[in-house]
Specification:
Layout lengths: L1 H9 L1 E4 L3 H6 L15 H4 L3 E5 L3 H11 L12 E6 L15 H13 L4 E4 L8 H10 L2 H7 L3 E2 L7 E5 L8 E5 H5 L2 E5 L1 E5 L3 E3 L1 H4 L8 H6 L1 H8 L7 E10 L15 E10 L2 H12 L7 H8 L11 E6 L1
Parallel strand pairs: 2-13, 3-4, 3-8, 4-5, 8-11, 9-11
Antiparallel strand pairs: 1-13, 2-12, 6-7, 9-10, 11-12
Helix pairs in contact: 4-5, 5-7, 11-13
């Protein structure tokens, strides 16, 4: 009973959360409310939001509230951790996923018993040398290697063609072989502004696992982003909203002191790729239905953008 009371004091779990409260800092650390469920499986939320911490600490709390990494990674499994490494920018700019977050996720996979953990991204780059700069300047290559991940070289990718069942525009795609062969796929985007889709978050981050990402832009970007999720949704999505690029995305101005960058110190985690994009949109200040691919993916029943229908846990550090 004492353990239950301690859990009640420290966690929040309720339906119909407005994610604007998380973004606005309305939560009071140490004074959360909790809707208790007797069975452990019943109290694992659909989505977790953690605020006011560093990337590593927020992830550790979020994955705890989701039941632990053991819910996703089993002993002996191969894992792909796919961050956004799209631009040759330092971490302070917010154009790429926070390297400390990537490191912590990789370490968590090992602790859960993973046999091998890979990290890669098909970056937005016309040349291999510039792509290598993305890996290095982002800090992700160094952080991932420090956590003993296999960082796949940008000039050593292999792809296989797959069919997209039910795709309205995207009928086939050349997908990175590691995505096709891995046991567990963890998607780790950064929340930021995007000049074409308004926001880039979890669904759009999957463009980094296909060979010809520019084809999306030529045929219908929002629909293609949603269509790909009909083929393979990640097993877990972790949205980095620590430093958020509010305008001039996706690459940003390159100046860490720019007014375009806001410190929101928030992290989201969910199995539902549509729900997590909807929650991230709210944190950014946009309604989910105003983002084309979120609205399309919800209509295609890829996930649920109606946050009031979800079990959401929030925690203020």
């Amino acid at each position: 009973m004492a353990g239950e009371q301690k859990f009640k004091r420290r966690e929040i779990l309720f339906r119909g959360l407005s994610l604007g409260l998380v973004a606005g800092g309305a939560l009071i650390p140490g004074k959360p409310d909790f809707l208790w469920a007797k069975e452990k499986s019943a109290r694992i939320p659909d989505l977790v939001a953690v605020k006011n911490g560093e990337p590593d600490a927020m992830f550790k709390k979020a994955i705890e509230l989701m039941g632990g990494m053991e819910q996703f990674v089993k002993k002996g499994q191969t894992v792909v951790v796919k961050p956004n490494i799209g631009w040759p920018r330092v971490p302070e700019v917010g154009a790429n996923t926070n390297p400390l977050l990537v490191k912590t996720i990789v370490e968590s996979c090992w602790a859960a018993g993973a046999r091998r953990v890979y990290v890669f991204d098909n970056v937005v780059s016309p040349t291999v040398s510039n792509a290598r700069n993305c890996y290095q300047l982002s800090g992700i290559e160094e952080a991932a290697k420090a956590a003993r991940a296999v960082v796949v070289p940008v000039d050593n990718f292999s792809y296989r063609e797959v069919r997209i069942p039910g795709g309205k525009i995207l009928k086939t795609a050349d997908v990175h072989s590691l995505i096709l062969d891995c046991d567990v796929f963890i998607n780790v985007p950064v929340l930021k502004h995007h000049s074409s889709t308004h926001l880039t978050i979890a669904m759009k981050n999957l463009m980094g696992v296909v060979k010809n990402r520019m084809a999306y832009h030529l045929t219908g970007l929002d629909q293609c982003i949603a269509d790909f999720c009909l083929y393979r949704k990640p097993d877990l999505n972790v949205v980095d909203a620590y430093r958020v690029l509010m305008s001039h995305g996706p690459s940003g101005p390159g100046n860490p002191q720019s007014a375009d960058i806001q410190m929101k110190k928030t992290l989201l985690i969910s199995r539902d790729i549509v729900a997590i994009d909807a929650a991230a949109a709210k944190i950014f200040g946009r309604e989910p239905e105003s983002i084309g691919y979120i609205k399309i993916a919800h209509a295609q029943k890829i996930g649920n953008m109606n946050l009031k229908e979800l079990k959401i846990a929030t925690y203020a550090m």
